[in-house]
Specification:
This protein is an alpha+beta fold and 186 residues long. The protein has a single domain, classed as Cyclic Phosphodiesterase, Chain: A, CATH 3.90.1140.10. The protein is built from four helices and nine strands, in the order βαββαββαβαβββ. The strands form two sheets. It has a five-stranded antiparallel β-sheet, sandwiched between helices. A four-stranded antiparallel β-sheet has the order 3-1-8-9. α2 crosses α3. It is globular, with a radius of gyration of 17 Å. The N and C termini lie far apart (34 Å). The protein binds adenosine-2'-monophosphate.
Length: 186
């Protein structure tokens, strides 16, 4: 079985900036499982465990769904939390810019994967890059406060490919390995 998801990779300079934000947020002492900066990505669909032979079916579905979506650009926005109010569980950086092609593409992917036997995600799609997952509600308030004082650099990057990743869970956090790339074409 493969624990698998589809995501948009982000370039090094973005990961560098996100790492710096993580370092500043760590100063709060909040108990957070921080995502390794090299593992940060924009998730489009999480499949969970799939039989290995199902991967080509998903790749074909993604190849079909990405047609008529040329590369587009996204920009880092402010810090945010899931849930939006109350005790945070996930801290992330939001994405703005050309979100229309992104939302259209994500919708097409959901439809294609549904046909391939994967039910739609029930939660609304909110494009984000997860920085960390809060382990303990204590200190989570401090995290919210700190986040309000931090400025996210308005870095932009091109979305020109979708990548199927394998996620292997380790005690120190998940390790993501690219399995297959699907390119957007101009
Ligand atoms: P997140 O960034 O919003 O937490 C790999 O685990 C990726 O798949 C993560 O980026 C995670 O999104 C996403 N994902 C979505 N649903 C998931 C689930 N039920 N379990 C684990 N990861 C999930």
């Amino acid at each position: 079985m493969l624990r698998c998801f589809l995501a948009v990779p982000v370039p090094e300079e973005v990961k560098e900036a996100l790492k710096e934000l993580q370092e500043l947020l760590k100063e709060t002492g909040a108990k957070v499982r921080w995502v390794r900066p090299e593992g940060i990505h924009l998730t489009l669909k999480f499949f969970g465990n799939i039989p290995e032979e199902k991967l080509p079916v998903l790749v074909r579905a993604a190849e079909k769904a990405k047609k008529e979506t040329p590369p587009f650009e996204l920009t880092l926005e402010g810090l945010g939390f899931f849930p939006f109010q109350g005790t945070p569980r996930v801290i992330w950086v939001g994405l703005e810019g050309q979100t229309e092609p992104l939302l259209r593409l994500q919708e097409k992917l959901e439809k294609a994967f549904k046909k391939a036997g994967f039910p739609r995600e029930k939660r609304a799609f909110h494009p984000h890059l997860t920085l960390g997952r809060v382990k303990d509600p204590q200190g989570a308030g401090a995290l919210r406060k700190k986040a309000e004082t931090l400025k996210v650099p308005p870095l932009s990057f091109e979305v020109d490919r979708l990548v199927f990743y394998q996620s292997v869970l380790h005690r120190e956090g998940a390790l993501y390995t690219p399995l297959k790339e699907v390119f957007l074409e101009a």
